[in-house]
Input
Amino acid sequence: MGCLFSCFFFICCVFLPSFAFSGPISTHSISPNFTVSNIQFIDYSGTFLLSPNGTFKATIDAKPLSSYFYFSIVHTASNTTIWSANRNAPMSNSDKLSLTTNGLTITNQAGKVLWSTPPLSSEVSAMQVLETGNLMLVDAKNVTLWESFDYPTDTIVMGQPIPVGKSLESAVTGEDMSVGDYLLQLTDSDVVLQWNRMTYWKLSMDTKAYKNSNGAVSLMLMNGTGLYLLASDESKVVIQVAFTGPSGFRIGKLGFEGRFSISSFVRNKWMLEFAGPVEKCDIPFICGEIGLCTRIPLMAECSCPTKFSSQTNRCMPVDSSLSLPSACNATSTGSQLNSSISYLGLGQDMDYFFNDFREPAKNDINLSVCQDLCSQNCSCLAVFHRNSSGSCYLLENQLGSLISTANSENDRFGYIKVLGNFPPQNPIEQKGNRKHHFPIAGLVLLPSTGFLLLTAFVFLAVQWLWKNRLSKTRTAKLARLNSSSSAELQMISIPGIPRRFDYEELAAATQNFKTQIGRGGFGTVYKGTLTDQTIVAVKKITSSGVQGKKEFLTEISIIGKIHHVNLVRLTGFCARGRQRFLVLEYMNRGSLDSTLFGNGPVLQWQERVDIALGTARGLAYLHGGCEHRIIHCDVKPENILLHGNLQVKISDFGISKLISREQSTIFTTMRGTRGYLAPEWLTSAAISNKVDVYSYGMVLLEIVSGRNNCSLQTCGHITENNDIEGGLSSYSSSSEFRLYYFPLIALEMHERRRYLELADPRLEGGVANEEVEKLVRIALCCVHQDPALRPTMANVVGMLEGELPLGEPRVESLNFLRAYGQRFTETATMEGPSSNVATIATYNSLSYISSQQISGLR
Ligand SMILES: *[C@@H]1O[C@H](CO)[C@@H](O)[C@H](O)[C@H]1NC(C)=O
Ligand SMILES: *[C@@H]1O[C@H](CO)[C@@H](O)[C@H](O)[C@H]1NC(C)=O
Ligand SMILES: *[C@@H]1O[C@H](CO)[C@@H](O)[C@H](O)[C@H]1NC(C)=O
Ligand SMILES: *[C@@H]1O[C@H](CO)[C@@H](O)[C@H](O)[C@H]1NC(C)=O
Ligand SMILES: *[C@@H]1O[C@H](CO)[C@@H](O)[C@H](O)[C@H]1NC(C)=O
Ligand SMILES: *[C@@H]1O[C@H](CO)[C@@H](O)[C@H](O)[C@H]1NC(C)=O
Ligand SMILES: *[C@@H]1O[C@H](CO)[C@@H](O)[C@H](O)[C@H]1NC(C)=O
Ligand SMILES: *[C@@H]1O[C@H](CO)[C@@H](O)[C@H](O)[C@H]1NC(C)=O
Ligand SMILES: *[C@@H]1O[C@H](CO)[C@@H](O)[C@H](O)[C@H]1NC(C)=O
Ligand SMILES: *[C@@H]1O[C@H](CO)[C@@H](O)[C@H](O)[C@H]1NC(C)=O
Output
C-alpha cells in the first residue's frame, strides 16, 4: 500500500508537476527523484511525508508573518517545528527541494544551492521520518546514510541524543529561524548556555539538577522521565533533571530570547517543565549593550546606568564628546588612541553576567594597571575590578547588559571604556534616566504562541507608555513634596498624592471613631464615609514611639507612591499634635483570616488560588517593582484584605522599615508575627526579602488547609511508624486533642505524594490532587530554611501562573520543620489536652519561641 502510494506520488510529481491536488496527499517514504516546491503544496499546509503513526510530518513550513519557507519536521499534534533544514537560507516561492540519489538539496530558481546534505557514502533509496521525529535518508539495504538528529537546530526531542561538542543554536526571532547569538553546548561535564562564547548559565548550578556521579559526560538524552547527561558507557548518569510534571511529548528548546526550556505537550497545551536561566536579568543581552537590568516581577526593567543615557535605543555616554569604541574595528592601531581612552565608572550596585563564570584576567593588580591592560587591547571594551583581591576582569569583543544588584558587599566595580578627547572632569550625575520595561514575553516560545506573545507585547508596551507618563508627573510632584517636607504639613495639597485631612474631617467621617473594623500591631482601624460618599478605612496609629512629622511625611510620600492592584492604597493622612492617621482604601470583605478560618461561606478552590496569586503579585511588586524595595516583614492572613468579588490587597506594608536600593539588605528592627517568622530572624543571619517569602509560604499552606498552621485539631494522629491515621481530611469524633504543626504534615504528605489529604476538608473534593500539589510544592519551596533556596516572589508568581516550572522542595532544607513540629507537640502534651481556648491562641504563635528570645534579638 505504501509503495503504491509512493509510486502514485512519484508519478504525479515527476510527470504531472502542474497537477491540481484536491486534498492532502502524503506518504511514509519517498524515493528519488522527487521534487517539491511550496507552491505545489501550500494548499494543504505543505505536508508530504508522515512518520508511521503520523506523529511527525515533513513539510514546507511557512512563517505567517514573513515570506520565509523552511523545509521542516513538525510535531503534528502541537504544530511545533522541531527541526529545519535550511534555517540560514529560507526558501522563497520559486525555490525547490529535491531528493536525488545523491541526497537532499534546496535550490533557487537560478539553480544555486541554498542547502544540501553532505556527500553520502552510497546512493539514497528512500527518505523517511521515524516516529521519534528523526528524518532519515537510507540506502537500498536500509542503512542510514544521513539523519536530521545529527544536525540539531534549536530543539531536541525525546530520544534524540546530543553527543559532547554538539550544540543547539537559538533562532534570531520566532519568525526568522537563522542562527542567533545564543548557544547551548554540551561539554564533558555540563550543559552550558553561551552568548558570543561567554557562558551565562550552567545546568549543574540549577536547583533542579542533581549530580549523580563524577564521570565525564559523553551524551545528553531526554526521555519521558528526565533530562540526563550520561557517561560514556551510557548506563551511568552524571547529572539529571527529573521531570515531575504530567508526561507527554516533550521538547527542549533554546528560545531566541536566550532561555533553555523544556515543555510537555499535555491535553493540547504546552506546559513548562524546566527553564534556565529563570531570572530574566541573567540573560546577557536582555537590555541591550550596557543596558541596566533590574529584576521586577516577570519582566526585566531596563534603564541606562549613571553617566549613560538612552540615545537611539542604545545606552550612550551622557557626555556627547565621548563615544563607545567597537572591538578592534575603528582602531586597529590601539596605541594611537591611547591618550583619548578614558573610563566611566558604573558604581557599586552593578555587575556583569560573565564575571561569575570565569577567572579574572589578572589578580593582585590595582585599578589603573587593570585599565591599562584594557587600553592596550582594542578588543577590550570594559573592565571590572575587585578592590579587595585586585582581580581584573576584561570584557572583550561585545558588551551585554548589566545586572543591578542590591548586594552591598559587592566590591567588584565596572568601568566602561570610552573614547574622546576631553575626558569628563565633572561627569554629569544623571540617574535612572528613561526607564523602560522590556517585556520578555512568554517563556515557552513556540510558533503557536507567537500571536499571543505579540498581543502581550503590544499590551505591555502601551502599559509602559502609560506608566511612564504617570510616573514622570508623579515624580515631579513628589520632588516638590519632599522639598517642602520641612515646611508645615498644612500647606500641602497636591492632587494625585495622599491628601491631607483635618482631624475634624476624619472625626466626622468616622462619626467620632465609632465603627471599629480592625485592630493591628500599629493601631486601630475605623470605617468612615467622606463627604463625597467614598467609604474609607481610617487607621489611627497607636504605636508608642510616635514618629516626628518629618519621618511620618517621608513615609507617607513613599507609601503614597506605591500603586499596585494588590496593595491597599493610601489615599490620605492626618497629623494632629502627636496623633497620626492614615486614610486607606476600604476593603469590604475584611481580612483573609476571618474569611479563611471563620464560619462563613467556604472559599472555593479557585478563589483560594486567586488570593494566593494576588498576594504573591503584591509582594513581588513590593520587593522589586517600585523605586524603594520594601520588605513587608509581617505577611499574615490578617494583613491580606479582600473586597467585593475577591479583589486581594495587602495592607500594612509601608509601615515596616523601608529598604532603599542604596541601603544594605540588612534589616535591624525586629518585626513580624510569630508563626510566620522565618528561621533567620532567630539567628544572626541577614534579613532579606526572603523573610516575606517564608511568611507567604506559611500563609499559602493555611490557604490550602483552611486553618491555622499551628492549631488544635481533633483529627487523626501520627502513629509509631509515622503514618498519619485517618488523614487530615477526616474530622473524627475522637476525643483526643492534638496539636498539629501543619507545615510538617504538608512535608510528610509531600514525601508520600498524598496532596489531596492536605486540602481543606470543607472543599469536599472540589479540587484535584495536582492542583493541591502545585500550591503545596510552592509553599514548601517558600519555607526552605536556607533563604537562598527560597524562590523570589516574582518566581512564585511565575509558578502560580504556570509560566515557570514548579520548584522541587528540598527535603534537606525542610528538616527543621520536624524539629519545630516536635517542639510544638511536646509543649502541647505538657500543657495537657484540656487546654482552653486561650492557651490555643498562644500556640498560634509557635509558643516554644519565648518572647524574650524574640525581643532580645536585635
Ligand atoms: C534522477 O535524476 C538524475 C539526474 O538528476 C538522473 O541521472 C537519474 O537517472 C534519475 N533517476 C531516476 C530514478 O529517475
Ligand atoms: C503506532 O501505532 C500503533 C497502533 O496504534 C501502536 O501500536 C504503536 O505503538 C505506535 N508506535 C509508536 C512508535 O508510537
Ligand atoms: C501550524 O503553524 C504554521 C506556522 O508555523 C501555520 O502556518 C499553520 O497554519 C499552523 N497549522 C495549524 C493546523 O495550526
Ligand atoms: C529500515 O530500518 C528502520 C529502522 O532503522 C526500520 O524501522 C524499518 O522497518 C526498516 N525498513 C525495512 C524495509 O527494512
Ligand atoms: C530515561 O533514561 C534514564 C537514563 O538512561 C533511564 O534510567 C530511565 O529509565 C529512562 N526512562 C524511560 C521512561 O525510558
Ligand atoms: C567594523 O565592523 C563592521 C561590521 O562588523 C564593518 O562593517 C566595518 O567595515 C568595520 N570597520 C572597519 C574600519 O574595519
Ligand atoms: C600610551 O601613551 C603613553 C604615554 O603617552 C605611552 O607611554 C604608552 O606606551 C602608550 N601605550 C601604548 C599601548 O601605546
Ligand atoms: C598601581 O600599581 C603600579 C604597579 O604595581 C604602581 O606603579 C602604581 O603606582 C599603582 N597605582 C596606584 C594608583 O596605586
Ligand atoms: C587582545 O585580547 C584578545 C582576546 O583576549 C587576544 O586574543 C589578543 O591577543 C589581545 N591582543 C593584545 C595585543 O594583547
Ligand atoms: C580601593 O582600595 C584603596 C586602598 O585599599 C582605596 O583607597 C580605594 O578607595 C578603594 N576603591 C574603591 C572603589 O573602593
Residues 32-33, 100 surround 2-acetamido-2-deoxy-beta-D-glucopyranose (ligand 1) (CB under 6 Å). The CA atoms of residues 161 and 221 lie 5 Å apart.
